Amino acid sequence: MVIALTATPRESLSLAEAQLADELFGPVRYAISTPALVRDGVLAPYRELAWFTEPTEGERQYLQEAAVRWQELVASVMTPGFATTGLLDYLDRAWVAHDGVSWSHIEKSRPELAQALLRAAHNRVIATPEGARLRDEHRQPMAVEDWVAILSDYGRTVLAAPDPPEPGWELLRAGLRSVGWTLTRNGARRGQSSVDKVLARSGAKAAAAGYLVAQEYLVRGPDLRAVVLTDFENVTATPPADIASVLAPQAGSAWEALARVQTDNPTLRVVLVTGTSVGGTREVLERVCLPGHSVVDRPDGLARIEGSWTPRQWVAHVTALFQRGEVDVLVGTRGLLGEGWDAPAANVLVDLTAATTSTAVVQIRGRAIRRDPQRADKVAHVWSVTCVHDEHPRGDLDYRRLVAKHRGYLAPDAAGLIVAGVEHLDDRCGPYAPPQAQDRASINAVSLDLAGRLDQTRAAWQIGTPYRDVTEVAVRVRPSRQVSLGVPEPAVYTWSGWPLAAGAAGGVGGAALAFAAQMPTAGWSAFVLAGSGLGWGAQAVWRRVRARRITQQLGADGMLLAFGRAAAAAMGAGWEQRVDVVPGASGEWSVRLRDSTAGDSQVFAESVEQILSPVDYPRYLISRRLGPGRVVMWHAVPDRFGVNKTAATSYAEHWQHFVSRGQLLYTGSTEGAAVAETVRGLDPMDVTTGMYAQWG
Fold first, then answer.
1. How many CB atoms sit inside 10 A of residue 649's CB?
2. Percent of all residues in the chain with a pLDDT value above 90, rounded to a whole number
3. Contacts of 146 (CB under 8 A, 6+ apart)
4. Residue 530 domain boundaries
5. Which residue would you say has higher pLDDT here, 575 or 20?
6. For residue 20, is it within any domain?
7. In what order do the strands lie in the sheet with 418-420?
8. Residue 38: is its pLDDT beyond 70?
9. Please, is 433 exposed, middle or buried when counting C-beta atoms within 10 Å of its C-beta (0-12, 13-18, 19+)?
10. Residues 648 and 664: beta-carbon distance below 8 Å
């Protein structure tokens, strides 16, 4: 017996739901990913596209004023004399030194505070805590959440400790409340701030929906079947007083989206469908209305259909019109046009929602990527509209929702690789912070260009070709300077005494010729010098030829390939041949272990990232010579290979074969500790790295 369940993946279930599923059906025997279904032709090929907006003028002014209030709070707390014990003094004593407790224990017991402290260290607010290790997620600007973690700890421990509390306690509570946190003696509790509401419901997002529908119509013409999803139909709750004059009365609603999409696309037939209404312009609704129903005007210039029918009936009726092409665009809420709603003709989805759970994301996208029996060549686009404001410290809240929506979700990137996470929207999108304003404008332009290339999207999926259905982890490397990463030192690997030996051999040869010719002393000297010069020259020419040959073998990405091969060889015999280093369109490089399991690719990616990252607190260090000189650079031995001396020694042998002559040092020794202290925090490569998942 076969039982078909909803498409919601098991990892998206709550703990209780997962336990119930296990009790009813037992463990999962086999699972197939969404990309595999596309490759098999069960689902339509699709592309995820990003569209960035900025707040409207009124919204921007409000956010700028709120940003000033936040900056004043931080400045006042940092000012000497704010409290009996200053913030920086407290952090130095309690967390930089953290006597009596290990940093690993702090990271496990208080992860949010630990991350905040390490970001503070990276931004030179405090010194790096003893025993701490800075990773890529720590080498970021401090977010409001980081400040909240630090300030709430300081407030509870220092300001609220006396009875009565120090005066700064109430000032701190009021300041945190303005950015969406309620501070008590038990800690800070997050709520939705006014800033978050402004960004989530910005009028710029409805404007973006209208513009994107127009652009898609230029590409698809009469084949356009677009769905615009919002969180709610009407604004029912009264907004906080501080933003009542900032947001429009129906900001973020389905009715606002309907009005903007129809205004920007007067020739298209746009209909709103929710659990309580069917709406649109009078002209459009008169074509939709059934006998016995009437079109009633609204005060905002739109209209709605009234009659004796239920949501089950009107949703089915309007959906049928949409399928036949008598309605071009549907505007609705994710609650209604979510799980269970079936319209295979839908080929464009504009997501204006704030939904971030895996279940909601899968269900929303499932509306667009179903295969259309009437159009075998269907290609679906899913647009994620995001509002970002650079001047407010929480102006990235909508971007964080974008990151959460795409976390673990697989889609093709601009290069045609099927990757997970926000990176498939554009390689300038990362998990920690939104792209810069100029990059966001460029990303919008790239998205429009990709939207016009339907055939390219279909080709990227390689429908019908074999696949492994494995998601591998890889490392994306971006040099901070536009320079080649260079060729590894083995390309010119020679014994340091070769020039002397070559010169001596040439001199002996010259002397032998002079002796055979019975030349006088002056002739002997000339032949010895000439022979020595020829020996040195031959050695230099051979060295250059050898370097060029290895350069051609490794390419301009030689350093990355060498690092990857050293790590792969340490993981398994012959694995170095499976290392791929691929350049990207924006100057970045991708390093991955080809044909590996998800677990092995994770270990490999983590190892390469540790090799490239600034040295922190590794168990072992290994050196690398820079070119033919004596300059030495130190790298951390990855955690996987630094567990003991045997593993570290084995790794060092592969390092010396693929990368460079190098010295292995245990940082627990006197010499190793001294070197580690000297090089700690130094960046051996001057690159930024990030791991991502790639399907194949």
1. 12
2. 55
3. 115, 116, 119, 120
4. 489-554
5. 575
6. no
7. 410-412, 418-420, 687-695, 471-479, 589-593, 579-583
8. yes
9. middle
10. yes
